[in-house]
Amino acid sequence: GARGGRMAAEGDVELELETEPNGSGGGSDGASGRAAEKPRKHDSGAADLERVTDYAEEKEIQSSNLETAMSVIGDRRSREQKAKQEREKELAKVTIKKEDLELIMTEMEISRAAAERSLREHMGNVVEALITLTN
């Protein structure tokens, strides 16, 4: 309430200072012109304040939704992580040939890790791995 009004008033003072050089040439005329503008500026200040308040409330709502979403995502992530670890164990068991790995790396111009992963996913079948990588 009161504080919001004071903030808008301070804004008005700053705005007046900015408009002064243009209005000062008119003398008393400029002064009356500025006085007439004042109520309008004040209203816009209140409207801005209202907008800020709405925005703050919206953010609060979003953040509570976000927390819920994050916990849901967290649960899903930990499940996915477990599944991934299982998959990595399975993939680690797959035997791959060094020359197949090097072939994929040179042909596809990808990192050793990416090439190895692709090979393992295709149970060491270099042809299938290359087909998947080219698609």
Automatic annotation (TrEMBL):
Segments forming domain Nascent polypeptide-associated complex subunit alpha-like UBA: 94-134
Region listing for Disordered, in residue ranges: 1-88
Descriptive protein name: HYPK protein
InterPro entries in the cross-refs: Huntingtin-int_K, HYPK_UBA, NAC-like_UBA
Gene3D superfamilies listed in its UniProt record: DNA helicase RuvA subunit, C-terminal domain
GO biological process, one term: negative regulation of apoptotic process
Domain of life of the source: Eukaryota
Organism: Neodrepanis coruscans (wattled asity)
Residue stretches of biased makeup (Basic and acidic residues): 35-61, 74-88
